[in-house]
Design brief:
The complex is a heterodimer. Helix content of chain A is about 45%, strand content about 15%. By secondary structure, chain A is an alpha+beta fold. In chain A, helix 3 packs antiparallel against helix 4 (about 100-125). The two termini of chain A are about 15 Å apart. Chain B is mainly alpha-helical. Chain B is about 75% helix and about 0% strand. Chain B contains 18 helices and no strands. The interface of A and B includes residues 23, 44 and 47 of A.
């Protein structure tokens, strides 16, 4: 992690009026090679992922692991309960019959997959976060209504203080301002 | 929603949106293939020397295979109106064309309806006499009432298909958005009628092959196969038309992505229903219910059952899961063919053990009839499409559909 040039500075915030301006600007930030930066929009923007160069998420692999864990756990649980710890014969079926075990196995696979998806998404997004330095900006409040923002963090290796500020201004931003940490 | 890339309906101006001269070529080739296929199938059936019983079962199998595709389209079109679906507006005309094959399917029902006694136990008086269950069911399962029901199902299906297709074609001429609003209102009642007729058709045409057996889930089981194979056909039709230089700008990878999702979902839905039906019968273990499965677990038939679990569910489930696959037309076409093959195998597994419980009866005439009916089916598709547009050009949701994107 690069050291910060100015102590107390979180980064620069650039404001855009139109979604397509943001997408064009995001592509240029991506091409400039910045890595610790983000876009903030009031609603999901098609094409922004590509413009930011965001790679596919690792979440599906986590979900696969969660699902397989649910599958294994369910089968083991049912075998242990019905056939091992307390053998219990039900209407002449095998002590551990696969068809009878499938519904619980299916449900537990789905349950652990869903929980992994939900909390895995939290973890990968570093949630929950009760505060974020960008909330220090008065301007940033409009990110939830009618403005589009790009923030570049000071800890980005390419961050050059004034240089970054000018870079952002050159992208067609309506306003660029520093944000305190 | 990237406004600067928004595509106007005018992008279709540079697109080839009709079959044109190809329609007549397809009709001619399709008819020729149809006559040769069905003719050689008939001769092979005569040569088999089993009183045409294999031929008739193979006919039922292949006829139901193509009927599945038409019924899938008949389900799809009202559903898109009912849900006011945006994504499908550019491809809905193709489904309307597929549902236009139902008159051909009604015609192809004749060999079945004229030879009920050679296919269905309950239609053979010598087998009904002395069988308390069959005698008890004779009020419902008798040739007269059965034929009447099949005629009724086809009347409803052809009527629904015609209504929705005609309305859509009328909109091509007038551009009146009220037509879309009216189709939306018709969508709900149409789907209720579809659900009832398709379920009862499954009971009559497939389940009554073993008239002792019953499963209330059976209609949904066939439905799952119908929808999966319908989206497979849509994938192949769209890919084929695009390869021939048609609909090139109209249909994007986003639409293929949705075909893929639907195939993926219904491959799993099929397995869910198949297993639910199996588990209830396995658990209750009542002889009149288990007999049907027992027949499919003996004399080599269990291999087909395991093949279905593996190839109708597990392999395509894994194969279609990724977004990567759904956005590659060649891969999608591969899985579409795969699913169609497996739907055929599924119908084979439903029908053929009743003809031949002692072993798997694969004959050349099965393939001959498949190819023959396929030829007639393709010819009918081209005939229905005719010189008309392959896209509902003035549908009010077309613009949104052209710009449709998946998140």
């Amino acid at each position: 992690m690069a050291t910060r040039e100015t102590p107390g500075l979180y980064g620069y915030l650039a404001e855009f009026r139109e979604p397509w301006d943001l997408i064009d600007a995001a592509a240029k930030v991506r091409d400039a090679g910045y890595t610790r930066w983000d876009c903030h929009t009031p609603f999901p923007l098609h094409g922004l992922d590509g413009a930011m160069g965001i790679r596919g998420t690792r979440l599906p692999w986590l979900v696969l692991c969660g699902g397989l864990a649910g599958l294994t756990l369910a089968l083991l649980m049912q075998w242990w309960m019905n056939a091992h710890d307390y053998p219990f014969l039900i209407s002449g079926k095998p002590l551990f019959g696969l068809p009878a075990a499938v519904p619980v196995t299916f449900e537990l696979t789905v349950l652990l997959s869903a929980l992994t998806t939900f909390f895995g998404m939290w973890a990968l997004n570093l949630l929950p976060q009760h505060h974020h330095p960008l909330f220090n900006s008065e301007r940033f409040r409009r990110a939830t209504s009618d403005r589009f923002f790009i923030s570049i963090e000071a800890r980005d290796p390419l961050f050059r203080g004034e240089g970054t500020r000018e870079f952002l201004a050159g992208l067609g931003a309506d306003a660029v301002e520093p944000v305190e940490d | 929603m990237s406004q600067h890339a928004r595509r106007d309906v005018a992008v279709l101006d540079g697109d080839n949106l009709v079959l044109g001269g190809a329609a007549r070529r397809i009709v001619a080739i399709g008819l020729a293939v149809g006559v040769v296929g069905l003719g050689s199938g008939f001769l092979l059936g005569r040569a088999a020397g089993d009183g045409m019983r294999h031929f008739l079962h193979a006919w039922l199998l292949n006829w139901l295979f193509f009927l599945s595709l038409s019924l899938g389209a008949l389900w799809f079109v009202p559903l898109q109106h009912l849900t006011r679906s945006t994504w499908s507006a550019v491809v809905r005309r193709l489904a309307e064309i597929v549902s236009g094959t139902l008159p051909l399917m009604a015609l192809l029902a004749l060999p079945v309806l004229l030879n009920l006694g050679d296919i269905y136990v309950w239609a053979d008086p010598t087998r009904v006499a002395g069988d308390p269950l069959l005698e008890h069911k004779a009020g419902w399962l008798n040739p007269g009432f059965f034929t009447l029901r099949i005629v009724f199902y086809f009347a409803v299906w052809i009527l629904l298909a015609t209504i929705f297709r005609r309305r859509s074609l009328r909109q091509d001429a007038t551009g009146d958005p009220a037509i879309t609003a009216g189709s939306e209102r018709l969508g709900g009642p149409a789907l209720i009628l579809y659900g009832l007729t398709q379920t009862f058709a499954a009971f009559d045409l497939l389940m009554s092959l073993d008239a002792h057996w019953f499963s209330t889930m059976f209609g949904v089981y066939w439905f799952a196969g119908i929808v999966a194979s319908f989206f497979a056909v849509m994938t192949l039709l769209t890919a084929g038309l695009q390869r021939s230089g048609r609909l090139v700008h109209a249909v994007t990878l986003e639409h293929y992505n949705d075909y893929g999702r639907a195939m993926f979902a219904f491959v799993f839905f099929w397995a869910y229903i198949a297993f639910s039906q199996y588990m209830l019968i396995w658990y209750a273990n009542i002889p009149e219910e288990t007999g049907w499965y027992l027949r499919r677990q003996q004399n080599g038939w269990s291999a087909v059952g395991y093949a279905l679990i593996l190839c109708h569910w597990l392999i395509p489930f894994a194969g279609l899961m990724s977004r990567f696959t759904k956005r590659r037309v060649r891969l999608m076409a591969f899985w579409a063919v795969w699913i169609l093959v497996m739907h055929w195998v599924d119908l084979f597994w439903l029908i053929m053990p009743e003809l031949s419980p002692g072993g798997i009866p694969l004959r050349l005439m099965d393939a001959a009839l498949l190819v023959g009916m396929g030829g007639l089916y393709a010819a009918t598709l081209a005939l229905v499409a005719g010189p008309r547009l392959l896209v509902a050009r003035r549908d009010p949701r077309l613009q949104a559909s052209l710009n449709f994107e998946n998140y």
